[in-house]
Amino acid sequence: MAFAKWLEHTRSAVALSTSDWAYPFVQWTHFSGLSLWLGTNLAVDFRLLGIGRKRQSIGELSSALIIWNWIGFAIALSGGFMLFASSATHYIPNPAFDLKVGILIPLALILHIVIQANARAWTASPNPPAIARLAGLLELLLWLSVVTAAVSIPNFETH
């Protein structure tokens, strides 16, 4: 909690939390990054599930989207950290935030990296193997859980 208090009182966090326009802009940036991150994840996950056009193999689609995918993640992470910094002492004790950041995001990231690492191998057959379909489904469910936890954060406000 000492780190959260320190972070919350840094010049940039105070400027963000007291500005009429900066906080909404950072929030918009965070959501834009999330949209890019999740959109590219969904494209690959749906393809793993056999949904969508099959003009590209799973490996080709994953390779084509990988740069945009991680750019979206970097934008979302940067914006999310700035939002966290502006109210860190309120987020730390929040169970929805703890679930999101402490459990769901790490699990979803690990699975996402596994999917990216195996996308080429899963291209060998015309239809994705069962393990690929399961991985795509699990990743979809994990990111849905992350979003659900995120929108639940205000329900646990501990001011």
Q: How would you characterize the overall build of this protein?
A:
By secondary structure, the protein is mostly helical. The protein has one domain. It is 77% helix and 0% strand. It has 7 helices and no strands. The protein is elongated. It starts with a helix and ends in a 7-residue tail after the last helix. The mean pLDDT is 90.
Short structural summary:
The chain is mainly α.
N-C termini distance: 14 Å
Share of helix, binned: over 70%
Contiguous low-pLDDT stretches (5 residues minimum) are: none
- Indicate the proportion of strand residues: under 5%
Task: Explain the layout of strands and helices.
Layout (H helix, E strand, L loop, with lengths): L1 H7 L2 H8 L3 H27 L9 H29 L1 H4 L3 H24 L11 H23 L7
Helix pairs in contact: 2-4, 3-4, 3-7, 6-7
